[in-house]
Amino acid sequence: MIKNYGDPDVKWEVSEQINLGLETRFFKDKLELNADFYQEIRHNVIELREVIPAHVGVEVSPLDNMGKTRSRGVDLSAKNTACLLVMIAGLS
After folding, report:
1. Strands of 31-48's sheet, edge to edge?
2. Which of 3, 27, 36, 73 has its Cα between 20 and 30 A from that of 64?
3. Digit-coded pLDDT (tens) for 23-75
């Protein structure tokens, strides 16, 4: 029974990433705004190929380069420290 074999046509999965970030503060650091933009593209995505019937006698399904994926998005955040500063000043 065959337990494992190689395929010379299967290539390594390749990833390209871009990350951009912006941090700003206003009103003497009382208001903070952050924005992050990201994108990731993966080429030669490796996936199990389920095309070999079980009766052939291969225990491991072969790997294959199945395609390309893209993930992208934006993360936004805002932080207000003015209320926190007032509370700390009141405790002093």
Report:
1. 14-26, 31-48, 63-80
2. 73
3. 999 888 888 999 999 999 988 877 666 666 666 666 656 666 677 888 999 99
